[in-house]
Amino acid sequence: MRLMNKAKSRILAQLEIFRVVHPGPFWASLGVAGISMFGMVAAFGTSPSTVEISIAQQTVVEQLAPAMRPAMRQDNEFFVREDHVQRGDSVASLLARLDIQDDEAFRFLRTNTTTQAIFRQLRPGKQVTAHVDSGGGLQALIYPLNTNDRALFIERRDGQLHASERALPLETEVQMKSGEIRYSLFGATDEAGIPDGIAMQLVDIFGGDIDFHRGLQLGDRFSVVYETLNHHGKLIRSGRVLAAEFVNAGKTYRAVWFESNDHAHGSYYTPEGKSLRKAFLRSPLEFSRISSGFTSARLHPIKQTWRAHKGIDYAAPTGTKVKSTADGTVDFVGTQNGFGRVVILRHQGRYTTVYAHLSKFAPGLRKGQRVSQGEVIGNVGSTGWATGPHLHYEFRVNNVQQNPLSVALPTAVPLTRQQLASFRSKAEPYLTQLNLAAPRSLALLD
């Protein structure tokens, strides 16, 4: 098209010349020009020659204004540097990787009382952010402390460095994840990218219904909607589970977090509004391997005779914390024959729980003391008739041993009618997110 336009311009120019040099009727001239133009169009339409192209091209030289020089960097501008503390790092090597070349700043870090936390807490993996000017001078430094959500802030104001410890401003983000049990719960949560803190919350939420020590099966599934707390888009720690679903042995359990306006603390409820908090936990320990199941015949470790086993043995390393499975009162703390060091708690009159073979008791634990569900009462050991470290746990009703893994456990007080209406409105968006996070929903989306 560009060649066509140039050709037309040349033809019009020739037409003007023709009119001046050869005066005559205009239409005759136009006819001659038209014939010439059609012939040229045909020529260009087939294969324009190099000579025609060179004639049509023109060289134009324009004077351009000189390029503007970039503005000089202002004194208050800086570079943002980020790096992680590495194994074997010193404060000097960390500052060098951040391109900080500021002797004054290094002396300030060494001599200031507040900044000594950097030297004591050089933990590998911490992400450090620095604002450095073009000359390597330190303008600001943010160093995360070992305590959650807090950091050491070093800032240059009016030419002087100042240090203070402050809480990090955190943003909340909602995550939706799902997984399937193949080897263990932690193996599944690791594969799904779910933090350990969220996995432990799942155990706490469903611990009254699911035996996470011996009840998990291959193919069990879970979905979870939870919060993460971030600083400038980077994960600081996991937050609260908002909703969760766990399918264990083909049975589905669901939970939604709810905090009513007339209660100081929230809790987890089924989608129908029934409390998931049981009066008793199924297990007094965190994850561990169970050495023998309830009522299984077992060889007595000392007498070498077979007898019915009236409790659950949880194999665990010495020192593992043992927790009360329910609110109660210490009925006995001391040593009893084959039990070794043992704690017996009484709950709601007719219920008692037994925790035997302990290595030690919780400091200050005494008879008649009130304890809360989940409170540490001792540590796993191998005292009494025990060949290795483990906890022997019994659940008794009217002093008769019952299977703590299958006995029906009472629940907490249900929601009132007014609370139930509020719960349903708040639970609906969480349940929608939970449905989207479920593996079956993801399969449908694929």
From TrEMBL:
The name this protein carries in UniProt is Metalloendopeptidase-like membrane protein
Residue span(s) of domain M23ase beta-sheet core? 308-404
Which subcellular locations apply to this protein? Cell envelope
Q: Which GO terms describe its molecular function?
A: metal ion binding; metalloendopeptidase activity
Q: Does the keyword Zinc apply?
A: yes
One GO cellular component term of this record is: cell envelope
* Oxidoreductase is among the record's keywords: no
Which cofactors, if any, are listed as required? Answer: Zn(2+)
Coiled-coil boundaries: none
Q: Which UniProt keywords apply?
A: Hydrolase, Membrane, Metal-binding, Metalloprotease, Protease, Transmembrane, Transmembrane helix, Zinc
The protein's predominant localisation is other
- Which species? Sterolibacterium denitrificans
Pinpoint the Csd3-like second N-terminal domain residues.
176-295
Which GO terms are recorded in the biological process aspect for this UniProt protein? proteolysis
